[in-house]
Amino acid sequence: MDLGHHGYGQKPAETAERKKRGMEAGRRMKAAVIKETSPGERRVALVPDAVARLGPAGIDVLVQSGAGDGAWLSDAAYADAGASIVSAAEIYRTADVILTVTRPPSIGELRAGQAVIGMLAPLADPELAAALAARGVTAISLDGLPRTLSRTQPMDALSSQSNVAGYKAALVAAAEYGQFFPMLITAAGTARPARVLVLGTGVAGLQAIGTARRLGAVVSGYDVRPTSRTEVESLGATFVELTSVGSAAGQGGYARELTAEERQAQQEELTGHIARHDVVITTAQVPGRRPPLLVTEDAIKAMAPGSVIVDMGASALGGNVTGSHPGETVVTGNGVTIVGAENLASTVPTAASNAYSRNISAMLLHLTKDGALAIDTSDEIQAGVVVAHDGRVVHEGVASLLLPAEGGTGVDGSSD
Known about the structure:
This protein is of the alpha/beta class and 416 residues long. It folds into 2 domains: 14-155 and 349-401, Rossmann fold (3-Layer(aba) Sandwich), CATH 3.40.50; 162-347, Rossmann fold. The protein has 13 helices and 19 strands. It has helices at 14-20, 48-54, 75-81, 88-94, 126-134, 157-176, 203-214, 229-234, 260-275, 297-302, 349-367, 380-385, 396-401; strands at residues 29-33, 59-64, 84-86, 97-99, 115-118, 138-141, 184-186, 189-191, 195-199, 218-222, 238-239, 279-282, 308-311, 329-331, 337-340, 368-369, 372-373, 386-389, 392-393. Strand 9, helix 7 and strand 10 form a beta-alpha-beta unit. Helix 6 (157-176) packs parallel to helix 7 (203-214). The longest helix is centred in the middle third of the chain and has 20 residues, at 157-176. The radius of gyration is 23 Å and the shape is globular. It starts with 13 loop residues before the first helix and ends in a 15-residue tail after the last helix.
């Protein structure tokens, strides 16, 4: 397998390719917004406010009729902003770039030379990358953005959508919990505040903490990274420190790899903390891999009847909670409600779409030069997000997932 320069499959024929695709100076790119068709998906890749910002960069926007309906954004709003409202067939026939939230709905209608930009989850679905490469489609996935670079923050869709999801997770928990979140003193008596524990204090976890605090709950947060204490406490929550692994911080305060004994001690101590809370929200996710198990069967059995667990890590690969399933709410024999939270960002569609639109617009503008995409995987941002280009899967991590043991499918989508 020839992955080319630096292992990412870049080829030196960039000038010839641009000429072939008609990217002459002055040409205006057609970027199209397709209507999402995944079950329950209500977000849209671009909102009307973004249309005017793309025009000066030589980008005309096409919008499939009804694309914004799920987020309460009408065709008229897009037209007023300067977009052209067209059919899906027109988009597949004429668009240079198709903007999506998730995977494109009709891969078979994509043509060679087109590009797709969205959250394609190539590490979880490398076959999609292979299928796009086989059709000669350039696939760009915001999932792979190198988030350590400060200049990528406007493009960081994972963070923006996790922020929305964390907010909604706290609301879902409050709706499922049979008592009040805040302390209430009324003529009918006093209700104590709910005790909420958030496991994992990344973007989603911190937003869940902040939202639960604003709802009046007494909130605690836990993360294996000791450095997250400051962030948790800045939101008015208590940081849970497990004494059984108190010495597990390596150089710089970051968590080192735990031994099997330390992991067991950690789980037992964490189970005790879980049992003392009314609501637990778990947020740990690993793209393309099984999420870590944080709430065991023993922990669930130790919780009081009426307690609620919202598992944001629930997926087809598993979840953070024993017995959770994506998109399902179950009640255990001891009265604990487990919510397998799935695609929470899509349940706040307007806010999520507004945030995502800014992310994908920033990415599109970064990739655009002279009214065309300028693919250059030596650029450190593009090295992370460009998955397929020029008929091949060029992202090293995704390509490695497609390597056949014996025969099968190659990284260009062909059989060996």
